[in-house]
Write a structure and sequence with these properties.
Layout (H helix, E strand, L loop, with lengths): L9 E7 L3 E9 L10 H10 L10 H21 L6 H4 L8 E10 L1
Antiparallel strand pairs: 1-2, 2-3
Length: 108
């Protein structure tokens, strides 16, 4: 799997537990890094054009999804419930539009 820079508008999650390794890479369409920030910081990013921003995007759904996938990884890693990883890898369960979705799950 190709490695990605932390400076691309992608989400990359890599977790290594004692029993499994998970790497998931998403390219989220229509959102930028600043869309994860609180409103005051987002406004500053929007006004100075640091990052791609769009006033019509549903940032709340984007933030909630990002929080949910982080939780699904923790549940998989700490509780051994690997079914929760489907929320990070199954396009039909992902509420935001993705460009690329690439993952490697090695549950031993």
């Amino acid at each position: 799997m190709q490695r990605y820079s932390a400076f691309t508008p992608d989400l990359l999650l890599y977790m290594c537990g004692s029993k499994f390794i998970v790497t998931v890479h998403w390219v989220v369409k229509g959102f930028g890094h600043c869309d994860m920030l609180d409103d005051s910081f987002w406004t500053a990013c929007h006004e100075v054009h640091i990052c791609k921003t769009d006033v019509n995007n549903d940032r709340l759904t984007y933030k909630q999804y990002a929080q949910g996938i982080a939780s699904s990884f923790l549940v998989a890693m700490l509780q051994g419930n690997h079914q929760t990883l489907q929320y990070a890898t199954n396009r039909s369960l992902i509420p935001i539009q993705l460009g690329d979705l690439d993952y490697d799950i090695d549950c031993m």
